[in-house]
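Subgroup meeting minutes
Present: P.N., E.W., G.H.
Scribe: E.W.

1. P.N. recapped why we're keeping a running log of single-chain structure predictions: easier to compare across weeks, and new members can see raw inputs and outputs side by side.
2. G.H. added today's entry (233 aa).
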Amino acid sequence: MPVPVTPTGRRPRRLLRDLTFDTVLGAIVDGTLAPDERLFEDDIAVWLGVSKTPVKEALSRLADQGLVEIEANRYTKVSSASTRDLMDVLEMVGLLHGSAIRGAADLEASNTADVHEAADHLASIAEGRPRFVDLIEGSRSFLALSENPLAQRAAAPLDNRAVFLSRHVALDLSSPSARLLLDRLGAALRRRRWAEAAHRYTDLFSRHSLASLLLVTDADPGSRHLMRRGIPT
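Output recorded in log:
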């Protein structure tokens, strides 16, 4: 899908570069901009009603997060989506979020209500019919409660990339093996067994578990779109 042609409203109190970054990031993560889609600074600047400077900065930051590929004097495009990328990213997300869940043991005494609320929320997600995106969103509360800025900064770009890739590489969490892992995760959270819950979460996101859940090996090349100076193709 090409860059939308309708200008977006801007909040004047936010830095323009941050607004530009967040808007383009959102368009990539929610699928508005597809894998391998060409990006032109002029198009994005017109779409957002900004100059090319914040657009350049936003694309550079997105490249640092692995969401955009920039080849100087050749092209700028949304990154490709592949099975290997998704498995690599999800495994790292599992380790970081799992560590935050394990840390709930140290926070429970001083912040019981918030920790238990986070646990029950994630357990409810696990007990339903979740996607990996839902599990990532649900476990972010543990990262916030950890008050560990290093872990939060490390997790944010990985979470964004995981959400983006999950839109284009399908994983089946309805299989019996996945259902067993999800049920064990939910039960450990309900029982406040933090070390076990962390293990179950990390195990679900491990490469070994992911390999059995793959439905599609790559984003469909036929569904990719190009963007050319605001003219849909």
